[in-house]
């Protein structure tokens, strides 16, 4: 945020408000995120990542809520076609990652929010 010119350290600098305005999110969401009081919803994270020019995956990892192992980098569709590789389904990813059976349905629902439509 600082690197993008948002003065988030000075309470009167207006950086938090400007970031919230630029992203079209509520100012309280930015404050709660910075104070680590709560994790913004997915749409808020998408908007912030776009304004900050940070991939959503990186935002989620930097937040500390998910690890790189939780969000492995996938091969682009073109590379899949060339290499013959198959994209993991959220169900298969949950199984391979050892997500407990009782949490898999929730994991799959959340993971599908990150996939392009039609996949």
Q: Sheet with the most strands?
A: none
Please give the domain count. 2
CATH architecture descriptor of the largest domain: Orthogonal Bundle
Number of helical regions = 7
Secondary-structure element string: HHHHHHH
CATH class of the largest domain: Mainly Alpha
Gap from first CA to last CA: 32 Å
Shape: elongated
Structural class: mainly alpha
Task: Describe what this molecule looks like in 3D.
It is a single chain. This protein has seven helices and no strands. With 119 residues, it is mainly alpha-helical. α1 (15-23) packs across α2 (27-34) and α1 crosses α3 (42-52). It folds into two domains: 1-66, 434 Repressor (Amino-terminal Domain); 74-119, no CATH class. The longest helix is centred in the C-terminal third of the chain and has 12 residues, at 101-112.
In short:
It is built from seven helices and no strands. With 119 residues, it is mainly α.
Describe how the helices and strands are arranged:
Layout lengths: L14 H9 L3 H8 L7 H11 L3 H7 L14 H7 L6 H8 L3 H12 L7
Helix pairs in contact: 1-2, 1-3, 6-7
């Amino acid at each position: 945020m600082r690197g993008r010119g948002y003065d988030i350290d000075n309470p009167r600098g207006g950086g938090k408000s400007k970031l919230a305005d630029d992203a079209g999110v509520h100012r309280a969401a930015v404050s709660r995120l910075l104070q680590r009081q709560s994790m913004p919803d997915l749409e808020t994270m998408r908007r912030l990542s776009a304004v900050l020019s940070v991939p959503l995956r990186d935002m989620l990892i930097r937040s500390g809520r998910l690890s790189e192992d939780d969000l492995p980098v996938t091969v682009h569709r073109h590379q899949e076609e060339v290499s013959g590789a198959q994209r993991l389904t959220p169900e298969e990813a949950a199984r391979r990652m050892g997500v407990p059976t009782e949490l898999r349905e929730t994991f799959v629902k959340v993971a599908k929010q990150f996939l392009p439509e039609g996949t």
